[in-house]
Amino acid sequence: MTGGPVIVLVEPQLPENIGMVARAMANFGLSELRLVNPREEFPNEKAIATASKADHIINGARVFDSLREAISDINFVFATTARERDGFKPVRSAVEAADAMRIKENSGQHTAILFGRERWGLNNEEISLADEIVTFPVNPAFASLNIAQAVLLMSYEWMKSGLERETDTAFRNKEMEPAHKATLYGLFEQLEEALDVRGYFRPKERKEIMVENLRSVLTRAAFSEPEIRLLRGVVSSLDHFSPKLPRGAGAPDHRKRTKENSN
Fold first, then answer.
1. What is the domain partition of the chain in residue ranges?
2. What is the pLDDT of residue 261?
3. CATH 3.40.1280.10 holds for 6-161
4. Is the predicted pLDDT of residue 189 greater than 90, yes or no?
5. Of the ranges 94-103, 161-170, 179-188, 204-213, which one carries the lowest mean pLDDT score?
6. Greater confidence, 58 or 258?
7. Amino acid 137: pLDDT
8. 83: which residues sit within 8 A by CB, 6+ positions away?
9. Would you give the DSSP letter of residue 124?
10. In what order do the strands lie in the sheet with 6-10?
11. Exposure string (b/e) for 208-242, b if CB count within 10 Å is 16 or more?
12. Which helix (H) or strand (E) holds 263?
């Protein structure tokens, strides 16, 4: 069993907010904090002062250059947003998300929750790397929720979920657990490259959103390591096909047989 979900802050601006996030995490038993491109140098004295005895979280926090790196060893990722922006991903309440994470963590999976920038949250590309979305039922007339408040809500729901009896037996089969994100990125890159050379991304100005939608569909399936290996093998096989030759003629074995027959 792991120590609970990782809290990931994407490009946090104020070190005081990082400190308050650490304090909120400590209140409810979370300990692993990761930062993606914080604006100010870290560790930071302001963050330590604001953390109020949650120094262990600040001192143990890890800084990454990109979100991909920050979640590469994670099996399942939730992204927090103020509104539903992605029709391809399931949207959960904080309670539902905490329950789901508790089950996954109890089965040995590593989970994470993404929180965006203070002013405008996560962008679509960042959300496309997550598996599901978490939204909070706030007052539409005053929907502003700072990072520390959002982390506090999720941390509270996480602790509360542990007080209830879990009976879900999902993902008992270790081999069928969702793959690490680094493995999924490999599938993204291979498939996107294969589609790009075949002119799939048309018109060019829509390529970015087409890639985001494609990633959203692929993350939704929660593919296991064996499943991703299977899909990558399929893409590699299709890469051997050339429209200028008979179907399958681009495959190495077929070319060899054709040459032998001509002799």
1. 6-161, 179-262
2. 47
3. yes
4. yes
5. 161-170
6. 58
7. 77
8. 135
9. H
10. 62-64, 33-36, 6-10, 111-115, 76-80, 132-134, 91-92
11. eeebbbbbbebbeebbbbebbeebeeeeeeeeeee
12. none
User: Beta-strand (E) ranges in 24-104?
Assistant: 33-36, 62-64, 76-80, 91-92
Q: How far is CA 105 from CA 21, 77, 175, in A?
A: 21, 12, 15
Dist CA 257 CA 199 (whole Å): 30
3-state secondary structure 148-180: HHHHHHHHHHHHHHCCCCCCCCCCCCHHHCECC
User: Over the stretch 198-224, which tens digit does the pLDDT of each residue have?
Assistant: 899 999 999 999 999 999 888 888 888
Structure tokens at 51: 């953390």
**pLDDT attached to residue 32:** 97
* Phi, psi at 219, each rounded to 5°: -75, -30
- Return the sign of the alpha-carbon dihedral for residues 29, 115, 72, 43: negative
DSSP notation for 195-228: HHHTT-S-SGGGHHHHHHHHHHHHHHTT-BHHHH
Q: How far apart are CA 133 and CA 156, in angstroms?
A: 18
User: What pTM, to 2 d.p., does this model score?
Assistant: 0.73
